[in-house]
Amino acid sequence: MKIKVYSVLYLLNFYLSGLLIPVMSLLLIDRGASLSNLSIILGLYAFTVVVLELPTGIMADVFGRKKTFCLSLLISSIGFAIIYFGRGFLAMCAGIMFYGFSRALASGSFDALFIDYYIEHNGSDKLHNITTRLAVLEALGLAAGAISGGFFPKLAATYFPVMGIYDINLVLRILLSLVVALLSLIFIEEHKKPESSERITIKQHVKNSSAVIVANNTVICIFLSVFATGFFLSSIETYWQPHFISLLPSDDMMGLLGIMAFLYLAAATLGSIASNRVIKKNRFNPKKLYLGLRLLLSFALMITALQNSVPYFILSYSAIYLTFGMANVPEGAILNGEVPSEVRASVLSVYSFIFQVGGLIGSVVYSILINYVTIPQIWLMASAVVFVTVIITAKRFLSHASSISHAEQTQN
């Protein structure tokens, strides 16, 4: 029963994020941002997340994941209240930075708590089940939020003309955040750590978390892949819409943009479910499965870059997210299987931090390259980056496996 309650809360949390996916840029412009400073405002969001990602992860481990998650919901409500009541560039900057702060607080806190609860009641040998559940709930929440979020502006314009066109999105985001925070306070349980754990200093916790990462070859490999993920996702999420529009034979087909958004979220969900079933039925080695899927991901991105027709572009673009969703399950199982419970939120925050850094570096690189090369050429370069990280990770995984095998033979 508790698993179901946690699942509902996790789904609702990502539904909140999805509400503003289709209208965020338009909302900021409606509140006084301009096209020239829109990228600055959104860049402040990413910068805030990157700067606060690690401290908030440590905060979740040291002071409590439940408290940190609820605090993230309250701070996000403050941020969107500033955007709702504010006007102009400075107000939008302030609101979006509060949102970035809440995003940093949320990453890793509830995930770590949910994963620990699942391991406690089901064992660590079924980690692929909980990573699949989290991936599916995230995708479903984002998809449901994006679909309804795209509908609400039309609803506001038709039935509530006195309201701003994006006010329903904002009001729902604020109110539902407070509801989820209240439900989390009531239903989420977090066991107190032993007294000795409570007395650990933040400095010592940082040392413990760093030691886990530095000493673990597998965790380093996953983080390398995560950097590549942020790097390549930045390229496709930034440029798929203008490239897709350039392929359309008529402006009357603009509605395909919404269908595309639904398809890639659905593909990611199906990929997570399929990957979990493959692991269950065939008992694949998670590391080998992960390497194979990351290789397919690189090829899917390369094939997408070469497409010139709308149907084939839709298929290949969906294939990117299908393989991405499949790779996420063994990735989560491998990472969480290597990380001790007491530093899980911190390590997951490092995971998110590296992902964000990869995306930021990608954005800077692409903003320069786009003046000299085409969008498909940028995607080919991103595909090459993913491919290189697969080769490096494969060598590290294989060398690690051979060293373990050699140690076992020596003991025998």
Give an overview of the whole structure.
By secondary structure, the protein is an all-alpha fold. The chain folds into 2 domains: 1-191, MFS general substrate transporter like domains (Growth Hormone, Chain: A, Up-down Bundle); 201-412, Up-down Bundle (Growth Hormone, Chain: A). The protein is built from 16 helices and no strands. Helix 7 runs antiparallel to helix 12. The longest helix has 37 residues, at 375-411. It is globular.
Could you outline the blueprint of secondary structure elements for this entry?
Blueprint: H1 2-18, H2 24-30, H3 35-63, H4 65-85, H5 89-106, H6 109-122, H7 127-159, H8 167-187, H9 195-198, H10 202-214, H11 217-247, H12 256-282, H13 286-305, H14 310-338, H15 344-369, H16 375-411
Helix pairs in contact: 1-7, 1-8, 3-4, 3-5, 3-15, 4-5, 4-6, 4-8, 6-7, 6-15, 7-12, 7-14, 11-14, 11-15, 11-16, 12-14, 13-14, 13-16
